[in-house]
């Protein structure tokens, strides 16, 4: 992927990534490509190798084999300039409790070669009215927004978000989604790890499902697992009763319904399988496979 | 947040100078230290309480010298105060930074390890200085500690202070890698701190009254030499008869403290861990 000038076509390029803990592979031959400017979501059950993969991309962990290129460099060897170009929002930080939001964001701003305006970032994550509060006195969700502020203060080209909205109330989540869309519009590539499927549907251009250290499927969240073309459930009301019909061609069925009811079908709805249905089906296949393996072992 | 349309991403300038980042870190380290009341009380009170108790209990004059035991304790305790402000506060503080995500966050940003350590060293220099001022005030106010009036004594004071702070700070950084988590850190770090005070002539007076194997062990570490250095500054030369060698040994003291500065640095570079025992 690298050309002669070290520029890459993809923001993240991974081939055959392997990471073992005590001989057990947690990531087992994983391939991954993320284009510049994409919002890319990683889904997978706990222990599937998501966090390990992301931590290798962030330069936190070394790998046992495989090639990894992030913004054109090997994260295991990359230096300060590379770190200036990435932003990381990890889980479980509880640092800087004694500093105010303004102090900690302001400090980290000065450590980057180029940074966003700290007050604007604090406002952007919705902490404007808490700027002079100590970080240790914030609620869990507010604390998380400090992490997000610190992740974006250096104006990163690539932003890693590891379950960023855990502990957010619904309003804060929608506000956060707006922020991510804004960053994406400004050209930031975003790698999002989350358990919230609505978050994936709201934000991601592409989604990958990881299970047992391997890539199960990659695609557009709207069409993942061919769900756009899969059967649908059409429901409507007829003579005061709720009717449901499962059909492989809902468009034809609805056209037929409309004609039969002279253009007026009360309570009409067409439901495709949700992303959650597809995801659970993918993970379900995987779980039964591993259960089978355990029995035969 | 800016609201402009998609923009062309420009090349970035070089990351800021590590020393400048280190100085900025020093300032936020100090803010954090002084706002954490437990740590402040813990760091400052222990040497002061020990001094008040010891000097209060053993206040008899040393025969034919005109010097009181309390003055000797007051001089030696300055060394323990520095060790508390450096070795103890760094040993526990860095273990804490490893646990609460401070170090992990830094590794994901352009802040280099050097800047982190510059910040820590600046913090302990300021805290040590404050600790020494407090101990001098208590020593002078309660126990009639005589502040020297000649430049030579203050020069000795200055180099013992600087070498002592550096040596103990480096040992503090090194020992921070021993405890598996921040919870066990203060237990792991208090043991050598208290133990060394007994065998270095801080809590025991005079040091020449200790059995020689204990003195030999104590003489390996910086605390014994720092305490001896401060006694040389604040006590008359007639008191050298109480020292193990019968003199202040300033030359040997300087060599051993300087050797700890170099050895401590090597030890830090060999043992420093970014993660705690559970983060794999």
UniProtKB/TrEMBL annotation, chain B:
Q: In this protein, which residues make up the domain named ABC transmembrane type-2?
A: 38-275
Q: Which domain of life is it from?
A: Bacteria
| GO MF term list | ABC-type transporter activity
User: Where does this protein chiefly localize?
Assistant: membrane
Q: Which UniProt keywords apply?
A: Antibiotic resistance, Membrane, Transmembrane, Transmembrane helix
Question: Where is this chain's protein located in or outside the cell?
Answer: Membrane
Membrane: present as a keyword of the record?
Answer: yes
Q: How does it sit in the membrane?
A: Multi-pass membrane protein
Tell me where the transmembrane regions lie: 39-59, 71-95, 116-139, 151-175, 187-207, 253-272
Q: Which GO terms describe its cellular component?
A: ATP-binding cassette (ABC) transporter complex
Q: Which PANTHER family match?
A: ABC-TYPE MULTIDRUG TRANSPORT SYSTEM, PERMEASE COMPONENT, NODULATION PROTEIN J
Q: What is this protein called?
A: ABC transmembrane type-2 domain-containing protein
- Native organism: Streptomyces aurantiacus JA 4570
